[in-house]
Amino acid sequence: MDFVIKSKRGQVTLFIVLAILLVSSVVLLFTLKPELNLFRQKTSSPAEYLSDCVEDSIKSYEKSFFDSKNMLQEGSLNYVYNKQTIPFLCYSTEFYNPCIPQNPLLIESVRKKMENSASRELSRCVLSIKEDYERQGYSFEYSNFSMSVILNELDISYSARINMIIPRGDETILISTREGKVPSVLPKLLRTAETIVNYETSFCEFNHMTWQAVNRGIVIERFRSGDQTKVYTLRDRNSDKEIKFAIRTCVMPAGI
Asked: In the predicted model, what is the mean pLDDT of residues 38-61?
């Protein structure tokens, strides 16, 4: 009788161990699956991997721009509104005088930063592909590395130019240029900000209600502070992504 009980206990223990091993294997499989898929993509379709690499970098920069208010620049004039620090895109210290744009090349500066970020990420991905191929015993050559990014009206286009030669068995993979587009509302918001700055520095005013009647894709909110600073909030209607900036122009003396 004791033998039967011990035997049953042994079987139960064995089943518990097997169940633990099975669950652990499943968890490990799902944990490693993204890395396995990434490895497979890098070696079986390096061109697509490079495109994904660039597009992920652009999306990451855009997210960072909206999250961390990347229009803020070191040494620039800023304004605190609702406990939030926002940049002056146009500022005047003199009464009656129109403001002076503080970042006249706003779109170009954003484009350049995004381009540099994508270029660094592309370089990292190329080296990652190289390491994976060489680990499998294949040779890998690349040269003439360059990256360009353009902010269009409704998207961000890119062109990654790189000459890659990957001999693999009886075939040779050649990659020269990867091009694509990433949908984005950032260019539209930045261009609207530039339009507002141009009006404020030329005419001391921007009629945001009239502008919205024609351009309904962006909501423009404006707040006037007691010191005559204007705070603009530009928000895309579909995505709710927004940017904020301040303008101080054609200021009137107190009491007038």
From this structure: 79
